[in-house]
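Case study.
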Amino acid sequence: MTTDATTGSADPQPLVPLHCLLRGEAGPPRQAVLPTGTPVWVLTRHADVRQALAHPALGRASLYAPDAPPTVLTPNILDDPSSILNSDGPGHQAIRRTVQRAFTPRAIERWRPWVAGVVRELVDGLVASGSPAEVVESLTKPLPVRVISRLMELEGLDTDRLGYWSDHALSTTAYSAEEIAAAIREFGEFGHQLVLERRKNPGEDLVSSLVRAADQTGEMTEAQITSLTIGLVIAGHETTMTSFGNALVYLLDPRRAEHPGAAAGAWRRIGEDPAAAVAATEQILRTVPLGDRTNAPGQLRRATADVEIGGVVIPAGAVVAADTTAANADPEVYPPGPLDLFAPLGTPSLTFGAGPHHCLGAWLARMELELGLHHLARALPGLRLATPVDRIEWRTGLLTRSPLRLEVAW
Amino acid sequence: MSDAPQLVVAVDRVRCIGSGLCARTAPADLVLSPDGRAAPARPATEGSAELTEAAEMCPVEAITVRDAATGELIAPAW
Ligand code: SF4
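After joint prediction, the assembly is written out as follows.
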């Protein structure tokens, strides 16, 4: 059912891969209108986006205040007011502090040997199945699911159920408001049972430490603990699966490179040199967006006071969209022209956001993508797409877009 | 406290993503500048549990706390 609702095959025009989407050009703040009719200030320059996302007077909670103008047509899990994503200030910082330690670069680095082991196991399975093979079901989807299941100790998690929950939770147009609400309710019930169980029988996993920290500080409501728990499950697998799938489309797209053979050369290099895989991962995260962003032109915030950004005074109450995709291509910060996949970034990209809501899982996502690309390219240096790019089936109607299936051959 | 080691706090302003966590955790030693990047609040400090926590918790490892005399890394230490 999920497949039917999210497949792109009914679209008359083939969707372009995400690395080919036109992006907004970095420039001064400009005014636009959200699909709900609400006016919005769109920020596109790297400095403006960064400043806005870190600004204490540009929050998420104010987007859901009683006087807030409508910003979404069909609310999904990101619109849950009890979510950590939609709280600001000291309350939000208290929540972040309970989980941040598990996600620092050092803390994530300790998982590297184990994540590499999972990657190798999945790649070995793919190789053994023989060419051609389908890479979403065999690698890009199971990798992040296994990683987050291990971190949260969700062994025995029903992955079909998880897929159903996360497709609904991140739906923009794929499902009705009622379907979304029902799925999120069920998912929340699963999360709450998990919280209760780990409170009773704590272990060494992420849910147990989250519950322990939250109970000790007493600063989180039960709804917030639950919402954070299911948020981690979703964020932990959906976005990584999306960027891994889209990274493969990008790297294996034969039309991408300037001259014949360049794409194949880059792919081989990612397999030969782990440092090249690290650099390429950063460049891919910077340049290949996660979705079409039909719902909003950037990450939304609302001003709680007059704020000056990029030479413009954004009045209190106004809605702001921080376009990280445009900012990631700002020629003031990143050299314009053909992408050098192996050049160091210099300035960190804004893919994982900035400010208090900077993505908690940034280092985990980087590591999964980097190890996934490296080991796949090492095992299969001659890998190529078996389906032309314009025939790829996409998961659509969600906040993210990635291949539903991706046939590869070697 | 005169024999407490003098420590120097540094923030890598390229890495810093402006989470504000450090300024919230150790306000005596770290401040968030208007440009959304953290900065040391004073040239030297005696250190505190809060400062160590801030350095250990920074989401991008942008903070270092060093012994002013020896340059030894005090935090993050794990
Ligand atoms: S905790 Fe780290 S990233 Fe956050 S403001 Fe402080 S130095 Fe910057």
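Observations recorded in class. Residues 222-252 of chain A form the longest helix (31 residues). Chain A is about 45% helix and 10% strand. We will return to this complex in the next lecture.
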